[in-house]
Design brief:
Two copies of one chain form a homodimer. The first copy, chain A, is mainly alpha-helical and about 160 residues long. The first copy, chain A, has a single domain, classed as Arc Repressor Mutant, subunit A. In chain A, about 50% of the residues lie in helices and about 5% in strands. The first copy, chain A, has a two-stranded antiparallel sheet. The interface between A and B is large, with 57 and 57 residues.
């Protein structure tokens, strides 16, 4: 089992990448290249992020995608909730009538695990992910990062 | 996003149901009915559980499936590991060479979340799930449970 769905993984990569490339609008192709994502799927994820106000998207010439929200305030959970929220268990998955919303111990434990994950991911902002580059920098070969920061010359 | 895959959900239901119906062998159809699962998919999950030694499965006349392991020792994590283990992140999902096994903050956080879930599920045995019937009993209409325990007469 994966922790993140493909949509969640793509959404996180895109938001982290955009936060790391501020002050510009980017084409879907550029974001896909930067995050090693498939453009066709990424575009749907970006639409979800735009609906949630995390990115902004302008069509047409000179248009593109940029980060709309403040990366100091956007958390991993915000991104998940925008693209593929945790499917919290609200009623008995077996459809047992006497259970209804009174989850049994099995499904209560599973739901509690999801609540725990949500709480953990609500603590971590995109800025925090970018600041924490130990040992490696998100979505970026270590050398490239040094090049972009002007700390290393391109060969 | 779901916490449990379908395989994990089916595996947990089957093991909880078998632990609750000890001292007998059951057909796949009976387990499927008892756990409201699709028999065709359940059979594959039961094969995984048999390979892990959690259930035993005998073919032929008089054969069937029963719980092999001690429900006081089998945990939710054991069942997950048998049918659909957490896909812990060991190397950079983007394939970045400079990252390799040195996960960046994003993928480290996701992997840590999976580790947290594993640790939680390692604490909970099947017996514990069955003992904790507040407010409802796993996989069972409340009335049925009372009937089976002889505490309520069938109408």
């Amino acid at each position: 089992m994966k922790m993140f769905s493909d949509a969640a993984e793509y959404g996180m990569r895109a938001v982290v990448w955009l936060a790391d490339h501020p002050g510009n609008v980017w084409t879907v192709r550029e974001i896909a290249d930067g995050t090693k994502s498939k453009a066709g799927y990424l575009i749907r994820v970006l639409q979800s992020l735009a609906r949630a106000g995390i990115v902004s998207s302008q069509r047409g010439v000179g248009g593109g995608v940029s980060l709309e929200a403040d990366p100091q305030h956007v958390t991993i959970l915000d991104v998940l909730n925008a693209v593929d929220p945790m499917a919290r268990i609200k009623t008995c998955p077996l459809g047992l009538k006497s259970h209804g919303t009174k989850l049994c111990s099995l499904h209560r434990r599973v739901d509690e695990a999801m609540a725990m994950i949500e709480a953990e991911f609500a603590k971590v902002t995109i800025s925090a992910l970018l600041k924490d580059s130990n040992p490696t920098y998100p979505l970026c070969e270590s050398g490239d990062r040094l090049v972009r920061l002007g700390l290393k010359r391109v060969k």
